[in-house]
Amino acid sequence: MSEVRVNQAHNLPVDQAVEKLKDFEDMVSKYGVKLVWNGHRAELKGTGVSGGVEVGPNNVSVLIKLGLLARAAGVDPSRLEASIRKRLTAAFGG
Fold first, then answer.
1. By CB neighbour count within 10 A (0-12 exposed, 13-18 middle, 19+ buried), where does 11 fall?
2. What is the DSSP letter of 46?
3. Measured between alpha carbons, how far is 77 from 67 in angstroms, rounded to an integer?
């Protein structure tokens, strides 16, 4: 199983930081992955992927675990990481 981890600093109140993740949520939904929110944490659920998002007072952390189905479908962890970084940078700057 491959893992993709991305951290992004922010200087927003946590609730506003969660709202800024809508573009990221839209991106993953195109691939059949849902974010199931419970407060400031979300669980990633989808075929061949799992993981989560945690929004802290100064940081957003994303962890995506790619299972065999995702890798068999051709998901490239490096490209996925770059895409996540791009979206988080666009959302939070920096």
1. exposed
2. E
3. 11
pLDDT in tens, 21-64: 988 888 888 888 899 999 999 999 988 899 999 999 999 999 99
Per the listing, tokens 């299972």 go with 67
Which domains are seen in the chain, by residue range? 2-92 (3.30.300)
Residue 59 backbone dihedrals phi, psi, to 5 degrees:
-155, 145
Q: Are 64 and 44 in contact (CB under 8 A)?
A: yes
Output the CA–CA distances (angstroms, integers) from residue 90 to 8, 9, 37, 68, 83, in the order listed.
11, 12, 21, 30, 11
